[in-house]
Amino acid sequence: MLKLTAARLARESFSQLARVPAGRQSRDRSRADVPVGGRAVVMAMAAAMDGFGTEGLDFPTETSLEQWKLEHVARDIYRRSVASARIREEEDPTEECVACEGGWEASVAVLHRETHVAYLTKSLRHLSAGHVVLDASRCWLCYWIVHALALLGEPLGDDAARDVVEFLSLCQHPDGGFGGGPGQMPHLAPTYAAVACLAEIATLEAVECVDRAKCVAFLARCKDTSTGGYRMHEGGETDTRGCYTALAVARLLGVGSDAELRDGVGAFVAKCQTHEGGVAGEPGAEAHGGDTYCGLAAAVMCDSAHLMDLPELTHWLAHRQGAVEGGFNGRTNKLVDGCYSFWQGGAFPVLELASGAVLRAMGGAEGGADRRAGATRERRRGAGNKGGAGNEGGEAIASDASSNAACALFPAAQLATQPTRKTNTAGSHAFATPSFSSRALQGWLLLCCQLPNGGLQDKPGKGRDHYHTCYCLSGLSVAQHWGGDGLVGPATNLLERTDPLVNVTEARLAEWTRLVAQLPKI
Prior knowledge:
This protein starts with 5 loop residues before the first helix and ends in a 5-residue tail after the last helix. By secondary structure, it is mainly α. A two-stranded antiparallel sheet has the order 1-2. A hairpin with a 6-residue loop joins strand 1 (230-231) and strand 2. The protein has 23 helices and two strands. Helix 6 (138-151) runs parallel beside helix 22 and helix 21 packs antiparallel against helix 22. The chain has a domain at 1-108 and 319-489.
């Protein structure tokens, strides 16, 4: 069985960029001013490209060179993945024909579930010495690991769950909220991480671990009444992260409808929306994927999404997806990164939860059909559509293996092959096809971000870590369950469904919500 690691493919691909094909050098006089090393990149990329991203080849910059390098690596990984599937089919003719309707996916785009579980389970008990720099992120490490395991369908055993709850109780501040580790000051970020981790455990012991009254009082103390937003800690900076973490915690603790907690948040988020359409951390800053998710989700949780320019937001989000790679970047003219599979990809189902506000903003009184048509157009604009991320009839089209670009290799599948759509357990919200290519995103995560020895990474060559493992898997869950384009790879790839507003698996969130409802009101 042929196995090619993304790290090896990345190294080999980058080494190829240093070699300029013979006979090409003399013909390229127009690029004589390209910096040393850059010319080889331009030449190799020009030879490899088939219509995607060729703009600006005559005027390379450091940013564009890095982008072309990454696209070249992604193409090479996709090309070799298709080739390895064909080799397998030749060796075993009984396997599904790889030339028919993208059958190659089932043999190579496979989720390495067991190795991911082993990596995460070991990390829960033992971390390398290098993790000492994350001493203020120990609650986050618990959440990243526990949530990733839950997505993989591997909830903690009783002993491990009790140990995590006991540790998180040590991180709880006497005055409310959680610090990054035991004895540290309370902060909204680790407070969200701790409460979300406890929600994934969803036992009575986990629920009783949180001093709800003091925690809500801490949220109130972080409220910035002058702007309507939230400070990350008492006396700290006010930004969209604070708005999201505060309201997500309030929602998990059963006080999400508290008017004082919600007051002014939507107006603050609207001020953070930029001319690009995305959302910044604070007014006047640059639009960013994480801040956009946080701002949008906060606005939705306080029923204020209508205050935002939602059409421009959708446009900005759709254009963050790379046509060649299939993943999302966090800002304009930046490289794609696996974690934005959730921060950007997860924003689309959040938009669906505000479907009424979206329709009103787009003037969609005619109904869902127009919205679905508009979403399809936006998806094609954002994902390049050179090979066609889908077609008007919603029918599967054969993968264009000659292109080696994600949007062509992973076209939309037939509706009959999609995972079953369910109603969000946190509320009865309907949703339509979002404006991104979910199959291209799945391809990027499974083939370019996944490591066979366990864990997921930012991009090829970067190496695994718990943060990217958590958010790559969260993005994969969103793409599988909310994408509307079908599943990439075998049926065993299907992850547990995550709630897009608080990023806790829906089954555990339902149990947590049931237990919280039995507690006395605050």
